[in-house]
Amino acid sequence: MKRGKLLDRIASQRMGRDIDRVLRKDREYRDAVKQQDIVFDELKKLGLDKAQRLTIDRAISADNQCGAVYGAVAYRLGMKDGIRLMTEIRQIAHQQ
């Protein structure tokens, strides 16, 4: 299996089920979700019409998608950096 494909599989698992488990225990994340709920409740109270709500929904969805893709790319880049660092450390250790 190619290293890139393996990294994609690892990233997919870690960014799915595994991260959900960690986030449930993370206080900062839970606080952010509470703040998000407050803001969405405020948004509902504005009494926007359907077209306005759809525009806001599309904007939020696009922003979420951008953040998700950014996070996935950053995670894979971090994994590659970690592998490269381990390889270099092993090479140094074998030279000594």
- SSE order, one letter for each helix or strand: HHH
Q: What is the radius of gyration?
A: 20 Å
Report, as a whole number of angstroms, the end-to-end distance.
31 Å
Which regions have little confidence, pLDDT < 50, spanning 5+ residues? none
Question: What sort of overall outline do the alpha carbons produce when their principal axes are compared?
Answer: elongated
Structural class: mainly alpha
Please give the share of residues in helix: over 70%
Proportion of β residues? under 5%
What count of helical segments does DSSP give? 3
Average pLDDT number: 88
Please give the number of β-strands: 0
Largest sheet: none
Secondary structure elements and their pairing?
Elements: H1 3-25, H2 27-44, H3 50-95
Task: Describe the fold and architecture.
This protein has 96 residues and is mainly alpha-helical. The chain has 3 helices and no strands. Helix 1 (3-25) packs across helix 3 (50-95). It is elongated, with a radius of gyration of 20 Å.
Short description:
With 96 residues, the chain is an all-alpha fold. The chain is built from three helices and no strands. Helix 1 (3-25) crosses helix 3.
